[in-house]
Amino acid sequence: MLLCPLAVAAEPIFQSLQSCEQGVSTASHCSVVLDSNGYLVDADSGKKLSDTAESMGAMNSFELYRDGGRYILANENFSRAKTRRWVVFGYDAGRVVLDRIYIFSLDISEQSGPYWHGYDCRSDSKPFTRPSDESFSESAMQALCGEVEGEVVLVQEDSPVSAPAKSLAVSVPVYSARNRNGAATYVFVGSEEPDLSAMACQSNCSPITAARPRLLRGENAFSVTHEPLKE
After folding, report:
1. Which of 63, 69, 74, 199 is the most exposed place for a label (fewest CB within 10 A)?
2. Domain ranges of the chain
3. Is residue 106 within 8 Å of 82, Cβ to Cβ?
4. pLDDT reading at 190 higher than 80
């Protein structure tokens, strides 16, 4: 983790975030919405994307956003760890396309004090089965990340990271098909904590792909295919 004093041009990864919470005016543009009980729901049919709700409470919040052709289920835990988890996926005609999950957590070092670390879990193009015993986010976590969240992997930067003043840079391990596959660095422009709207790419971020789901047999099957996003 670095607080970066140097200035560089950094465009946000998510540039047109709109709320997809049920009842909010912007949700009329969303194919899937987050209802007040913590379920992701198809906006047209009302069908839930999982049988188990997200665990919402005083210490755990969830919000759903749309950004162009992708959706982001954002989870913030307000405990000491202050974990942020962002599940990025596409949704069309009842089909889910998982793209990746970003995880950032606050930890404390006896030597250097508080610091942010995290993970970047990317899709392996395997079908995503509709979750029943788990919430949508927990099932997505298992599909893309496995058990990596329990590990603290610190990535050493090969060269100094440059970013706008008072911005946070975090280098994280990248996992593809739940296997370690290099590292990526993200900068949160003008923020000293991970912030979805301020997130920019520094290195090895790999473009987020959009959903054009391939229909599979069986109404409980969610498919995973990838095409470049067309904003």
Report:
1. 63
2. 2-228
3. yes
4. yes
Instruction: Give one word for 154, left, alpha or beta, with left for phi > 0 and alpha for psi -120 to 50.
Output: beta
CA distance 26 to 20: 7
The Cα 158–Cα 1 span in angstroms is 13
Distance between CA 209 and CA 124 in Å, rounded?
12
User: pTM surpassing 0.85?
Assistant: no
Please compute the mean of the pLDDT values over residues 64-83 and round it to a whole number.
92
- Three-state SS sequence of the chain: CEEECCCCCCCECCCCCEECECCCHHHHHCCEEECCCCCEEECCCCCECCCECCCCECCEEEEEEEECCEEEEEEEECCCCCCEEEEEEEEECCEEEEEEEEEEEEEEECCCEEEEEEEEEECCCCCEECCCCCEHHHHHHHHHCCCHHHCCCCCCCCCCCCCCCCEEEEEEEEEECCEEEEEEEEEECCCCCCCHHHEEEEECCCCCEECCCCCCCCCCEECCCCEECCC
Task: Give yes or no for residue 162 having a pLDDT over 80.
Answer: no
Give the C-alpha separation, 55 to 78, whole Å. 13
pLDDT digits (tens, 9 = 90+) for 98-123: 999 999 999 888 888 889 999 999 99
Residue 185 and residue 203: Cα distance in Å, rounded? 5
Write down the residue that tokens 């047109």 correspond to. Answer: 16
Rounded Cα distance, 58 and 42, in Å: 26
